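Before a colleague's protein record goes any further, I have to sign it off. My question to you is simply how this chain folds and whether the tokens agree. I do not need a full report, just your reasoning and any doubts. This is what I was given:
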Amino acid sequence: MGVEKIVFKNALKIYLGVVLFFFLMKLLNLDTVTELRILNFGFVFWGVNSVIKENIFNNNNTNYLQNLFIGLFTSLLSVFFIIISFSIYLFYIEPSFIHVVEDSSLWGSDLTPPLISAAIFIEGMASSIVCSFIVMQFWKNKKNPNNNI
């Protein structure tokens, strides 16, 4: 499978994990508990691990930097999907949710959707970088057992 397909598939996995978790929190009235957002890190970790593992085993690519950047790009793509979806959610589905975000102790008040998008981008990229480096520490010396070379 090509790298592009692996990246897109795993970015979609991260995106769906975060979105479904958000709606589950909303359904259980836990959307105001901002501390639960730390669990999004798990979805990023899962997707980054999957994309690097698939690239090693399907494409026989064990190059550290290439796999690191594939992990980073996968999570970057998912962050863009999340920002677009969150913007649609804030503008069209529940504009009052901005007050929930403002009441959280993490971001403060007087927020605008572009400011929230920027904050999500920074948070998403920080977790992406951390996850990619952690995952690469595990996979950096792994070889494809099916590759006899």
Q: What stands out?
A: The chain has a mean pLDDT of 87.
